[in-house]
Structure formats: structure tokens, C-alpha cells
Amino acid sequence: MNPRKKVDLKLIIVGAIGVGKTSLLHQYVHKTFYEEYQTTLGASILSKIIILGDTTLKLQIWDTGGQERFRSMVSTFYKGSDGCILAFDVTDLESFEALDIWRGDVLAKIVPMEQSYPMVLLGNKIDLADRKVPQEVAQGWCREKDIPYFEVSAKNDINVVQAFEMLASRALSRYQSILENHLTESIKLSPDQSRSRCC
After folding, report:
1. In principle, which of 9, 18, 60, 178 could form an S-S bond with 82, CB 3.0–4.6 Å?
2. Where is this motif: Switch 1?
């Protein structure tokens, strides 16, 4: 029996202030929900180990602050990430309207810039009654960008695990693809090496 492969992945969670990024992360990692709101300044990091197929994944998940004044500082944390959760609050239209900016910030920091960079969108706080962003509108935004969409509740633990593990799965696939391409490139012979030489 083959031992499990071990892979470390860096994931980030971004979005406007107050959308519940920290609550989503704590629900996923610790199965807890805190009623009191505290603003994340800069970034905090939580880790979780999961098993996907024959691979043990160590997820290092960076929870980034959503305050406008810290955006340039926070965006430095995006570098080297393997995937991103974009989050908005379904009761806050402005948080949804800001998604293009957040997505653009993330993609601008990814090296190399790739269309295949994995993202998922989470519409949080579906447990609240005063919804402002219709599900169809969020789904339409995601269809345009080919991003999976999850309606979630950090408070009631609805779809949180599914969303994070969808991102982890996509990030792992991308990681494996990059690794395979790198190995293929390193095996190819250069033109000089491919010609047989006589002494």
C-alpha cells in the first residue's frame, strides 16, 4: 500500500469588511461561531489537515482584513496562494458590488497570472431575513467568471465545509498540474542534447 502524498496549500479568504470571513474560517477549522464581531487587522492564519483521495492536505488559510485602508498591505498576503475564497454578505449589496475589485486585487498578485487560479464565491449570512443580493444575481456573476458559488451560513454551519473542500480540491488539481508540467519540461531534451554526436 502506498503512503499518502502530503501537500501544503496556501488558501486565502477575501472580501469586504464585516462579511463574516473570520466566522467562516473558524466554523470550518474549529466548528465554532462567535457572536461578537472583531475586525481582522492585516491577516491571521489558521491551519487544517484534511484528506482528499490519496493525499493529505495541510491547508494554511489566511484570513485577510477587509478594511479599505489596509487593502494594499493585505494584498501582499495573496502572493504564493494556491486558491481563494471570495466572500460577501447576502444582506449587504455593497459587499457584493465590491467583488470585482477584490477578485482583481487577488489576480493581480498571482504569479504567474493564470486563468486557472481556483476561486469559489461564498454568499454568507443566508440565515438572516433581510437579504439584499438575490441568489440568481450571485450565480450569474459566478457563471460569467466560471467560479463555483455556495450560499453559506457561518452561524448555522450551512455549506461551509463543502465550500472550503471544493476550493481545496481545485487547488490540489492545479498544484498537481503545475507539478506535472514542471516535471515534463525538465525531462525534455534541449536541441543540442537530442542530436547524437560522434567522437
Report:
1. 9
2. 28-41
| 108 known member of a binding site | no
Residue 13 in this model has a pLDDT that exceeds 70: yes
Q: Which of 150, 100, 161 is nearest to 125 (CA)?
A: 150
Q: What is the CATH number of the domain that holds 19?
A: 3.40.50.300
Range(s) of the domain holding residue 52 = 5-194
Residue 65 assigned to a binding site: yes
Query: What pLDDT digit, counting tens, does each position of 58-67 carry?
Result: 999 998 875 5
In a domain, 91, yes or no: yes
Output the nine-digit C-alpha cell for 191: 536541441
155 is in an annotated binding site: yes
Tally of domains within the chain: 1
pTM of the shown model? 0.83
Does the annotation flag 126 for ligand binding?
A: yes
